[in-house]
Amino acid sequence: MTTPDAPAESCPMPRVSQAPTDDVLALILARSHAVAVVGASPHPDRTSHAVCTWLMNHTPFELYLVNPNAGDADIEGHGFYASLADVPAAPDIVVVFRRSEDVPPVAVDAVKTDAAVLWMQLGIESEIAAATARAAGMDVIENRCIKVEYARLRDQIVANTIA
């Protein structure tokens, strides 16, 4: 049980080495179309649900929600896929909302889909997953929120889309 005076759990502070430069991030986001979100939740109180909803309403991305436990649920009309292998399009970005220790198999699956980017959300980092993705030629982003980065870099993303 948490007491009012207990310290809140926190995410590790993002390190510069966990993501490319802003210019590269903006280019990645500008050139991406299909985004698979592994660990997306049908529950509105979950962060992954809020991020997916925001991405659906504020980006041109086609989102594919991946959660084997979601059943027939949906987020704004987008149904869920049981696995990355079930997603009908090759995702440009695989966004991960899973515990860090659960990410290595997701990286293996992302490689199999020919994804270009493995994106681990804020608080998620895995050296093993990052090494797997990099060995396959993928870009890797750790401990960053795709919603926050997209909003922060929107002007650069738009400029890169037009260029």
TrEMBL record:
Database matches in SMART domains: CoA_binding (SM00881)
Listed name of the protein: Putative CoA-binding protein
Record-annotated CoA-binding domain positions: 29-124
Signal peptide extent: none
Superkingdom as given in the UniProt entry: Bacteria
Organism for this UniProt entry: Demequina lutea
